Amino acid sequence: MFDDISASNWKRKSKRLEKESVSSPLGLSNMTNSRSPNDLRSRIFIGNLNTGVITKRHLHLIFQQHGDIKAISMHKGYAFIQYGDEMDALNAVFAQDGQAIAGQAIGRV
C-alpha cells in the first residue's frame, strides 16, 4: 500500500490516508524497552527509517494490520514496535521485511 510513494509525495498521501483511517495511535505508549522475555520476543526493529517524514501514526497505519500494537518508539533513523503477541511480531517481520516506506527501503525488520 505504501511501497511506491516517494518522499516528496508521502505527506500529501499520508494526510489522505489518515483521514480515511478510523483507528488512532494517539493512545499508544512509547515504552518499548521492557526486558521481559515475552516483550522481547514480541518487539520488532525497523531500520533505515526516514523519521523526518514518517510519524508514529504512519507506522501504526502500516503495521497494525499484523496485530495489536502496544507501543511505538521512534528514534532518528529507526523505530521499535511492541506487539502484544509474539506471533503478531513474527507476521509483521515476514510481511514488511525489505518493503519501502515513503520511497525508502526500510532496513531489516
UniProtKB/TrEMBL annotation:
It comes from the Eukaryota. SMART domains: RRM (SM00360). It comes from Dinothrombium tinctorium. One of its GO terms (cellular component) is nucleus. GO terms for molecular function: RNA binding. Coiled coil: none annotated. This is RRM domain-containing protein. Residues 1-39 are annotated as: Disordered. Residues 42-109 form the RRM domain. Keywords: RNA-binding. The lineage of its organism: Eukaryota, Metazoa, Ecdysozoa, Arthropoda, Chelicerata.
